[in-house]
Amino acid sequence: MSAVASAKADDPGRHDGLPVLDGKKAARSAKMLGDFGDYELLEEIGRGGQGVVYRAHQKSLNRSVALKVIGLGPWTTETHLKRFRREAEAAASLDHAGIVPIHEVGERDGQCYFSMKLVEGGQLDEVVRREPMSIRQSAELIAKVARTVHYAHEHGILHRDIKPGNILLDKNGEPHLTDFGLARLVETESTVTGTLEVLGTPSYMAPEQAAGGTTKVSKATDVYGLGAVFYQLLTGHPPFAGGTTYETIRLLLNTDPRQPRLLNPKIDRDLSTICLKCLEKDPKRRYSSALALAEDLEHWLKHEPIRAHRTGIFTRGRKWVRRNPSSAALITLLVALAAGSGVVVWNRVFAVPMPKSIAVLPFENRSEDKANAYFTDGVQDEILTDLAKIADLKVISRTSVLQYKSGVARNLREIAQQLGVANVVEGSVQRSGNRVRVNAQLVDARTDAHLWAQTYDRDLADVFAIQSEIAKAIADQLQAKLSPNEKKAIEQPPTTDLAAFDLYSRAKSLLLTASASATFDPDLRKAIELLDQAVKRDPSFFDAYCQLAYAHESLYAVSGSDHTPARLALAEAALQAATRLRPDAAETHLARAQYLYYGLSDYAGALAELEIARQGLPNDPRLFELTGLILRRRGQQEEGVQNLQRAVELDPRNLYTLQQIALSYQFLGRYAESIAAWDRASAIVPDNVETRASRDAFYLFWKADTRPLRQTIDAILAQGSSAIASCADIWFFCALAERDPAAAERALVALGDNPCWSEATIILNRSFGEGLLARMTKDEARARSAFEAARTQQEKIVQAQPDYGPALCVLGLIDAALGRKDLALDEGRRAIALTPVEKDVINGSRVLQYFAITAAWAGDKELALQQLEAELRAPTASLMLSYGALKLFPVWDPLRGDPRFEKLVEEAKQPLALK
Questions:
Q1: Helix (H, G, I), strand (E, B) or coil at 562
Q2: Could you tell me if residue 346 is inside a domain?
Q3: Which of 48, 263, 409, 822 has the fewest CB atoms within 10 Å, i.e. is most exposed?
């Protein structure tokens, strides 16, 4: 099955919880959510860290409101409830035209809620994404919001979370401030000390908020937030945005924002000065009040002199040196060297990987029994895992080092360059009877200098102690700081049962490669079998339970082959077992995040668990990968790509993550960058026909050009029939796009029993492909027979998972092909209701987009065209809605010749990112 079109190519992955009515989203939701006391919940319109916002009808007063309900879950604490109540109490006490008013505060069945005015407009960030503001409009808006903030300050309340998502623009473009979720009474602020809780949104958070501890938060904190929003309006970027929360906060604390004029030359010096004064690290150097900021902006708008003064270069330099004494000394030395050696010294110094970066290469199995290869892999993996727990090191994931198997000549310098590290570890394992010999050596790959080497010859039972000793010795050689918690984690053995460890090692190796394998499902099932045996031997094997939960979740959500309550229950049972053993472990929080994401689609809960896990797993790429998938599924495509790229830094040769980056660029309509990501994947596995075909397929989708893909398929066919099997679905798609029935027939044969097309969770079986080909060639008897067979297969899938929208969506498509119009449209609408786009942008959008095909096949052209017009402008585009598919693929034949459809095909030429 192809990477570009496989179920595993897009795992099941924004709103800030604000009272905004978005007309497009409202039109998509027809399902009533039921009553909540005096309120009839109509649809979810927002979701944030503290609760869920619904558009609701208040029955007693016959009015539309926004109702915010705290999202109670199994890990909700009294702290969350107190913060929620504080939000309501703070906002309800304010009466200002620029603040969204609170109507009612209450509690029902253990759930806190409050209702507020429904602002029928859009969030500031959404509005400017559609149509950027002029510089003057931006200054006018921030001046108005600053006066609103000043009003709140005068009434004793801080906002503490000012960001674009918390500023709503009504139909007249007037701003309204909302979400006082982090507000506290100003007069009690000085008593709130000693808390380690960091509140706010990192890209707009003031340094004193990020620092936490006893640092006081004041009115100046909100001035900073106003400045950060202003900076984004002026430049198109927040002042600080790292790939992760940690990186963003590090930048916030240690660097100055770039001059706005460097990002937008149209900004004049005075306005740049106003903006940067708000963003001073020292609160005392900011505007004394939000009112002072508003007045200075108004001076600028009237072409009057401003009161703020520009910060000189020497002042900026002095501040930077105070924050970065070590770096300042280094740069002084570099400047001196550059004077005699030229600026090339600068480039070379900063091109070198960080000294505390390392890759643990696969160890050599020197045992006479070659079956001990998995044991050897397990030893290497445990050493790597131990090192990865050290925050002071950068450690490359095992997935990226798998290909550098021992037993072949290794160019360590080249390997280090490919992985972006300075050091590598090599080793060997020899197991004989009850003895084990482990050899390990640390090499500086830049100079080929051997920094450390040691041989351990001990009882087999000591193998886990050997692993931790090696990890600590390497950390010591690299002068990496080791905290007490890290030392404790490294010294904890995974199990005391070596047979269980063997089973676990085999299963983990399967899971590491399953996502990029054509045998995905069988590999998952075999891994589950091995892990079940491991935990049966050692019921306290914590790591095995974590892996077991993930394997079940992958069958449930990633492959889609067993999306049943029984499979999800098995995943939950494994998670519960891990939680009982080590409830506070970082791995437990990661496992819980994976379960919340894959199993429950609880994205906010998963993100919260990932933040906790990050503290104990600083080098685990899965954290960044899963964060990226979640953000993408919530509609935050750019932020999702950033996290996926951070995952690739730690796992640079992970095909799956590179595929996800390619797909993210596809969702953004940036096909050239998508192809570049496929090129990087192809460079890692140049002989992988699936990756090559997936890469060239994007020319078909992007430019309706089948030639690159046709040439690649011809080359694969020349290698033999077995080579084409893994990408036969792409071949089938290409043959249909070229209207080549003979090639399509050959592709169907190569498919065997595999799906003819799968785009993430939309999986079309082989019989469906036969029907599609027959319909294209006007063989109606064969088409009907094939679609009947396809329906029989799909109906069984729907019966096994009746609440799974994508499966029902496919059933509706098949019924449309069989001419069962009413049934098909009903199934399609039920699939949409089961997969709301407000909850899952990717799957929800895809179900909506395939519903357009269902409507076209059912003969309802008007509905199909309306759906197409809406979905072609949606934030996430299915491959079936690409320019190439619309122009060439036969599923759209019922609409061909219609002027509206032909216009949409032409509009699809333009990438989504430019619309």
A1: coil
A2: no
A3: 409
